[in-house]
Design goal:
By secondary structure, the chain is α/β, with parallel strands linked by helices. The protein is built from ten helices and twelve strands.
């Protein structure tokens, strides 16, 4: 028999009341039932936990040791249940809510704005994480309602069984950011080989990012210097000409930075909206698609790419 919280609760009740009879009444069970349960617990542990005396029950030395470990567990479980009920009551009192998770994306702001206009009575929260896998596991556990994530080409995500997937874009090319005075910035499309002598910066904490870039380098027969760091740091190094870095094609134009597509689009990701089964995600997806289209149209180079590839996201309405 494996010990469960209910068994620990029974041991605490016996110790607190000093009597099997009183403990049974406290627990709302019959005394014979509690006596049988105690015997099974003691058999499982291999020794008596209480001395049965004429005046009641007294913990043995082993019983006191078990109780010292059991009480925090019982109290912790009671607190967990109480907190969960309070949270559930707060949710019911505050009305409907939508808990969104996403990896970093240029479309987040427009998506949230659209959702708040479309769903004014909805309490909408946002969690951004570098790990798509962590977000998907949180959706599975019920901590998020939906997650907008990217899957690096060649590095498939593990989507928990039962979650519902909708593909926003099957293949989004990754562009390259570089200093304005970089020689390759003079061309509308950059060859990967033109950047072989550059230092590349990648964030290894983003699921699949480094593995995907390494795969592309290997296929091209290149071995450039690679720096590891977050993309905020990367942007500052790119501006100074100290590095080049992959970036989202929806990245807006900057006076101090050039953003160019790579020839033949060797770097790409798949964009997914993932939710729990039974959730009505039609509105959430529609507003995400509209927000993405808006962001793509603001980025002229990417909008042209979508037109060339006949993507429905290139539509203007």
């Amino acid at each position: 028999m494996e010990l469960e919280v209910r068994h620990l609760r029974a041991l605490c009740a016996i110790a607190d009341t000093g009597s099997l009879h009183r403990a049974a009444r406290t627990l709302g069970v019959s005394q014979p039932s509690l006596t049988t349960q105690l015997r099974r617990i003691e058999n499982a542990l291999g020794a008596e936990l209480f001395c049965r005396e004429r005046t009641g029950c007294r913990p043995t030395l082993l019983g006191r040791a078990v109780l010292s470990r059991a009480r925090p567990l019982v109290d912790g479980m009671a607190a967990l249940v109480s907190d969960a009920k309070a949270e559930a009551d707060a949710v019911r009192a505050s009305g409907p809510r939508l808990r969104i998770g996403c990896t970093a994306s240029r479309v987040i702001g427009g998506w949230l704005r659209r959702l708040r206009l479309r769903l004014p009575d909805m309490d909408i929260s946002l969690r951004v994480d570098v790990s798509a896998g962590a977000l998907l596991r949180t959706v599975e556990a019920g901590g998020l309602d939906v997650a907008f994530v990217h899957e690096v080409e060649g590095c498939p995500l593990t989507v928990p069984e039962g979650l519902v997937q909708r593909v926003l874009l099957d293949r989004e090319p990754q562009f390259i950011s570089m200093a304005r005075d970089h020689p390759a910035a003079a061309r509308p499309v950059v060859d990967l080989g033109d950047l072989a002598a550059d230092r590349w910066m990648v964030d290894p904490t983003v699921d699949g990012e480094w593995d995907g870039l390494r795969r592309v380098f290997g296929e091209a027969g290149l071995a450039p210097t690679v720096l590891h760091g977050d993309y905020l740091t990367a942007a500052s190094l790119v501006v100074l000409g100290e590095a080049v870095a992959p970036c989202q094609p929806t990245s807006g134009p900057r006076d101090d930075m050039a953003i160019r597509p790579l020839r033949d689009d060797p770097l790409a990701v798949r964009l997914l909206l993932v939710s729990r089964p039974g959730a009505d995600m039609a509105t959430v997806y529609a507003e995400l698609e509209a927000a993405y289209r808006e962001a793509a149209q603001r980025a002229a180079g990417y909008h042209q790419w979508l037109l060339r590839n006949r993507s429905p996201l290139a539509r203007t309405s």
